[in-house]
Design a protein that fits this description.
- With about 375 residues, the chain is α+β, with helices and mostly antiparallel strands.
- Helix content is about 25%, strand content about 25%.
- Strands 2, 3, 4, 5, 6, 8, 9, 10 and 13 form a 9-stranded antiparallel β-sheet that branches.
- It starts with a strand and ends in a 19-residue tail after the last helix.
Amino acid sequence: MWIHWDSRKVRVKRQVLDPSNGLFTLEMEYDNLRGQHHKPSVQCFVNSTTGHVLVWSDAPAPFVSVVYSPNLDIEAQLPAPEIDGSTGAGFGEFTCSQHFPATVPTLENPNPPRTSKDRNFALAGRVQGHWTVERLAESQQKLKQMGAGKSREAHWLSGGPIQVFLRSQKEQPFRLDLALFTPRDRADNVVFAKSEATRLAQVPANQLQQESENHWREFWSSSAVDLDDKELEKIWYHNQYFLACCLRKGELAPGLFGNWTSGKIGTAWHGDYHMNYNTQQVFWGVFSSNHVDQNLPYVELVEDLLPMAENYAREKFGLPGAFFPHSAYPVPSQLFPTRLPPGATKPAKRPGPCRAAGGSISTHWTRTSSSGSIRFFAPPPISWWPS
């Protein structure tokens, strides 16, 4: 997602992210090169109650275009995303959806049939004001040709990037509402993303910001530290903010790099779950900081991997209990992601998942049993691993 301005006329004066409420502020100085000057300010936050992204200005903003470019990776062998864009009276909008098949394509079956285990994501954005959409049909045609095996770079060389490009028709106040959903959020997420972006665009920005402020106020009321070492204290608060950005009840547990991945950035080891200790260590501090619900994504992860771990212990070693893999992914599977040659017995370095799951569940019980909100989960009694 890109918001463009003319660098000859705009200078970034200051940009600040406030961890106390998740609000990003961008202060600019604008000179139209004809003697007119003003200092617009742009604010952005992820709404903690709705999950959508809101960007808006306090005055006419010098933005010349808004561009959405879908992430394309020919090596992933995924179906190409579908994009669209349009304008109406006082707004422009764009959408993107992409299907993620659970069945891996092969040379014999390059387009496997859809199943109930498939997933997708849907994104919709609405920008207020007067806009035009440019070269959309060209980008849509290129996406249809992605199956021919051309890389994204090849498409760029043959006429520009694949994108939805909205050009501003005049200097105007700016507001962008962006909504993104998966089937974990709503079964009809493709339709819902567009309707939710449209609905939220009608709600005053200050009202949405206040709702988000209330969420953060409640979050920060759960714990605090006062240290002599103020740099260490700052680190503690910043890391509480980072954890709040990637841990939430009902959401997937973060991989090795949390939510912060893009293209080749943050995708080493496929950004997977390393079950030796890397996955667990994210959650070590959630109890001492009194954010018990932040542990639930890890509980759900262990529950999701449990059938595979039990199956492996039973079929590979003829033992009860569970043998967790060294690496895992947030997808349904009965097979270890890392296949082992005959005689190999080291898919896991230590009993980290079982030990950490038992510790976290025990701590969860201690912290929540009095309120009656305990999450019942009984791991198998035996955790076995090779010497």
